[in-house]
Amino acid sequence: MNNTYKVIISVVVIVGIAFGIYTISPLFINTAIDEPLPIQSIDFETFMGLSEEDRMKVGENMTEEEKGNIMETFARNNITVKEEMVSVTNKNNTMTGNLIDAGDGFHMASGQVKILQTSDGPVLRFENLDVTNGPDLYVYLATDTNAEDYVSLGRLKGNLGNQNYPIPIDTNLDKYNTVLIWCQAFSTLFGSSHLS
Question: Which stretches in the chain have pLDDT values below 50?
């Protein structure tokens, strides 16, 4: 065997090993992210429309000025909260869903998905995310689970934990109401959630 064949074989082996490491290694590596809730710009009616647990979470992240505005509104008014107002306020201001697996027995996903309104615009938040890792995972807002029409929110920060992804302000959330965790390199769905 002459030197040319040895060089060609060496290059093929090196390229094969590099490709194998790129595609297989993420399956054995977990990256955990634990971001706090984004600071929400919230008015009184929205605040009152939240569940007690969500009010506590939001309250932890409010500025002193926002807390003061809510407390001042309470002090000035006698306020009666009606069930109808609560459900409408929740529906208009928060979209939620739960991640489900791709359905192929290999690409697994779980966790809660929320869209929160902040002073900087809407934010998609994963809570207790747990998804099979992959080589090129991205977060999409899409019209369906095939990623034919979508808005990319960027690369998935980690396959475990709590994470925030800003949503472009002009995004039509009535149209793009399905969250996808999508492998761009192989056009493969890892998990999805319909938001309502």
Answer: 74, 78-92
Q: Identify whether the C-beta of residue 190 lies closer than 8 Å to the C-beta of residue 107.
A: yes
Residue 158 contacts residue 32 (beta carbons within 8 Å): yes
pTM: 0.64
Structure tokens at 93: 């201001």
**Count of residues making up the chain:** 196
Nearest residue to 162 via CA among 35, 61, 54:
35
Burial class (CB in 10 A: 0-12, 13-18, 19+), 90: middle
Q: Is residue 111 exposed (0-12), middle (13-18) or buried (19+ Cβ within 10 Å)?
A: buried
Output the six-digit token pair for 164. 């925030």
Closest by Cα among 122, 117, 124, 108 to 160: 108
Q: Which two tokens stand for residue 173?
A: 């959330």
Which of these, 46, 81, 86, lies nearest to 66 by C-alpha position? 46
- Tell which residue, 186, 189, 100, has the closest CA to residue 136: 186
Q: What is the pLDDT of residues 153-193, one digit of tens each?
A: 999 998 998 999 999 999 999 999 999 999 988 889 999 99
Tokens of 159: 């396959």
Radius of gyration (C-alpha) of the chain in whole angstroms: 22
Measured distance CA(71)–CA(50) in Å, rounded:
16
